[in-house]
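Quick log. Single chain, no ligands specified.
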Amino acid sequence: MEAFLFFMMVVRNICKDPFPLHAVCSFVWKNMEGQLSFLKHAVLAPPEIFTFVHSTRKLLSIDNMHIDEQTALSNHAWRSLDLLDVLCQLAESGHAVSVRSLLQYPLAHCPRTLLLGMAHIETACNIIQREVVSDVLPLMIKNTQDIGFVLNLWQLNRELVIWGLLDAQNLGLDSMLRIIDIFHELKILSSVINSVPLSLGIKLAILASQRGFLEIESWLSKCLFLYKDVFFEECLKVIKDIHFQKSKDIFSKQFRSADLMSDLCLDATSFLLNALKPHITSRQLFEELEKVHEAVLNIGTFVAATERKENPIEAPPSEVQDKMYFIMNNVSAANVESKGKEFSEILSIQYYPWFAQYMVMKRVSTEQQFHDLYLKFLDKVNSQQLYKEIVQASYENCKVLLGSALIKSDSEERSLLKNLGSWLGKVTIGRNRVLRACEIDPKSLIIDAYEKGLLIAILPFTAKVLESCQSSIAYQPPNPWTMPILGLLSEIYSMPNLKMNLKFEIEIFFKNIGVNIKSVKPTSLLKNRKREIDGNPDFRNKDFGVAQGSQPQMIDEFKSENISPQNHVELPTNAGVHSKLLPQATMLFAEWCQICSHPGENDASRTRHVLHLYQSGLLKGDDKTESFFRILTEYSIAHCISSGEMNSGALQSTQEVQEPSFVAIDIYAKLVFSILNYFREQESSCKSFLLSKIVTVIVRSILKDADDEKTPLYPRPYFRLFINLLLDLSSRDHITDSENYQVLIVFANAFHALRFLKSPRSGYRHILVSLCCFLTSSQQANSHYHRLLHITSSLISASTCRDLVTHTPE
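-> predicted structure:
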C-alpha cells in the first residue's frame, strides 16, 4: 500500500486532472497480475487518495441504503460498472481466485450495490456475476425491506435472477415459500414460473398452488400442450428429487410428518399423478411415476414407525441440520477424513440419535452403493457413542420393515429391507461385533418366513446380513453359530418347486462367502412344518412355460421343468470376465428371475430393470457388454446341464428318463427379448448391433464347449435359447422389414459359423421350424431364407428340407 500511496502522490503532483480510469478499467492488460495488484489497492484507498467517482459508467444511488453500506462506497469503487466489467473479464482470463478475494469486501459491506452492478455486466461466461447472485439473493429473500430491490433486479436482468433462484431452491422449504410470497406480492409470480427452467417452474408451481396463488390444473394442461412428454419427464424428476433428495425437513421437528414438506411430498405426488394421468401419451412414463409414488409410501413406513415412539428424537437447530445434509451430500473417498472432522466439530452428542435415524432411514436404506463410504466416514468420526446409535437405529429400522405387511407384495420395500440387511451385517458381523439375537435372529426369521410365505423378503435380507461372515474373524465358517444357518439355507435350497429367484439368492450367497453348498449338510428343521399354500410367492404350483411369445405346441420336446432340488451351479469365472462384473451380473440376473417368477410383476417392472441395465452401461455394445452376456449365457447353460446331471444321478435306480431344467434358459431369453424391445424404432441400428453382440457371445460359447475334449458338447440348451429368441422375435408387432432383415443376417451368420459342428439333427430341425415362424413375419424373407436353408441342408434330411420349403410363404 505504501508504494501505491507514493505512486498516487507523484501522479497528483504531475497531473491536476483526475486519474485516467480508462487506463485501468476499460480493457485487460497483458500484465494481468499487475493490473489486479493496482485495482486491489485502488478499491480500498480513501477517496482523497483514489476515487472512482468520475467513472464513465456507474450506478445511481440505491434507496434505503444502510449507513455501513454508504461508508463502504466512499470512494465509489463498487458503483463503477467499468471496474466490475474489467474484474469479470480478468476472472474469466484465469484469475478468478484473485477476483473472488477482492470481492469479499463488497460482499460483506455493500452486497446489494455489488449485485445490482453485476446485473449490468455481460461477459462470455458470467462466472463472477452468477457467484455474486448466488451469495446475495438469499439475503435479499430473507429481508422484507428488499422486495422493491428484487423487482428492480428482475426487470434489469432476468437471467441472473433465474440463476440465483436455481441455487436458492437448495436453501430449504422456508426460502422457497418466501420466494413465492415475494413474487406474488410483486405481481410477477406467473412470469417467474414461466421463465425459469421446467424443473424449478414445477416446484414453484406446486408451492404456489399450496399458497392458493396458482390454478395448477390449468397450468399443467398448458405445459403439457406445449412440451408434451418432455414436461412429464421433468415432473417425474422433480418428484424423485423432492422425495429422495430434498425432503430433509421430514427429519426436523422431532421427525413429525405433519411437517409441511412431508405432507407436500405426498400431496404433490398424488396430485400430479391424478392431474397428469389423462394427458400422458407414454405408458412407460406413467408407470414410472406410479413406481416413484409407491417408493415414497415405503419411506413413509419408516416415518410412521418413528412417530409412534414414546420418546421423540430431539432434532438439532435447522442451521445445524443444513450443515449435516451438506456434509453427507458431499462426502467422498477423497474428503472423508476432513468431512469426519467437520462433522465432529458441528454436531453435539445429544443429537446423535437424530443423525443415526437420518443416516439409516434416508441414506443407508436407499444408497447401498455408498455403504462402504459411510463406514469409512464413521471410522473418521471415531465416536463409540455415535456408532452405538447407528447400530441401534439399524436394528430398529430393520424391525420396522420386517413387521410391515407390504414386504410380501412390494418389491420396493423388499429392496429397502435388503439394503438394511447388508448394512446391519457390515456394522455388526463385519466388525466382529455381536448380532444381538434379541433384536434380529436370522434362524428364527427364516423358519417363520417359511411358514408364512415370506421367504421372498426374509431370505435375501438374512443372506445380506450373513454375507459379512466372509470378512469376519469371529463369524467366518465353520463358526458354530453360522453353520446351522447355512444348513437351514441348504435345506430350503433342496426343496422341490422353490422359486428360481430364491435358489439363485442362495447360490449367490454361498458363492460370496466362499462355501460350497454341496459341502453343507441340510438341516431338517422345516421337515414337519406346514407352510401357506394360497398366494405363497416362494414356491411354484406349476411349471414355467416357454419364454413369453413362444409357441410351445410346436416344440413338444422342449418343455420347462422344475428346478432340480439338488441342483447347484458353479458361476463362470473366466479370466476374460471383468473381476468386478461377475457379482453385479449375478445380482442383476437374480433380480430379473424374481421379476419373471413373481405373479404380481408386470411389463413396467421389466422395463425398469432393462432401463437400469442401460443406465449401468451394460448395453453399450462394448467389452463390458460382451462380458456381461457371457456370464449370463454360461450361467444359464451351466444351470441346465447341471440340472440334467443331478436328475439323472438321482433316477438311475428307477431307470426313468428325466429332462433337464430349461428355466434359466427361458428366463435369459426373455431378458434378451425385453432388452431388444426397450430400444425405440429410431434406434433399430442399436438394436441389431446389440442382438449381433449377444448372438456372437452365444456362438462363441458353443464353439468353446465344442473344443472341450474332456466333455462332449451338449447342444440342447443352446437350441432352446435360439428357438426362444426366434419365436419371441417373430411375435413382435409393427416391426419393419428392415428390422427383420437385420435379424435374419445375425442368425444366418451365427448358423454359418456353426455349420461344421456335429450336433443332433433334431435340434437344427426345431431351429428351422422356428425360423419359418420368424420368416412369415417378413415380406423380404424369401431370399434370406434360402441362404439359411442352404447352411443347414447338410444337417437334416432332404425330405425335411422339402417340408420346410413347402411351409415357406410365397
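The CA atoms of residues 137 and 164 lie 6 Å apart.
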